Amino acid sequence: MKFDLWIISVLVFGVATLLLPPGINAGVTEEQMRSAGKLMRDVCLPKFPKITQDVADGIQNGNIPNSKDTNCYINCILEMMQAIKKGKFQLEQTLKQMDIMLPDNYKDEYKKGIQLCKDATVGLKNAPNCDPAHALLTCLKNNISVFLFP
């Protein structure tokens, strides 16, 4: 499992930096971002058989049901994005990944939304229902006008 996450992290997060000239820190194209999101979705979706393609598409479009299965699916994606770890929002890591994985035209809006949501997981327990993931994604959806989720 850890090896799979490592491979995907290298593929998803490394491609953008490997393709850039030394000293340049720019986001990816929207197409690259969506491809990376598809990789994450393809890893997490099979782990949660109660999450249908329609439910995952709904989450992607901002309809975020609050149930154990959907929350834990969201948690899986957020962990792969390095945005959440054991139910705790990883602010600094999220900001670093955002610089790598988002097109430049999304970054300012996301930085603001991320700052507004930095305390969204405080006081929530991860087990057994992955509640912090739901709270974080809902906060981000409510505070970022261009909502993106794999």
TrEMBL record:
List, in alphabetical order, the Gene Ontology terms for molecular function in this entry.
dibutyl phthalate binding; odorant binding
The protein here is known as: Odorant-binding protein 19a
Quote the InterPro entries the UniProt record gives. PBP/GOBP, PBP_GOBP_sf
The answer, when asked if Flavoprotein is one of the entry's keywords, is no
Q: Can you cite an annotated GO cellular component?
A: extracellular region
Tell me which UniProt keywords the record has, alphabetically: Disulfide bond, Secreted, Signal
Source domain of life is: Eukaryota
**CDD domains reported for this sequence:** PBP_GOBP
Q: Which Pfam families match?
A: PBP_GOBP
Principal localization reads secreted
Q: Which residues form the signal peptide?
A: 1-26
User: Which is a GO BP term held by this UniProt record?
Assistant: olfactory behavior
Q: Which residues form a coiled coil?
A: none
Q: Which family does it belong to?
A: Belongs to the PBP/GOBP family.
Location of the protein in the cell: Secreted
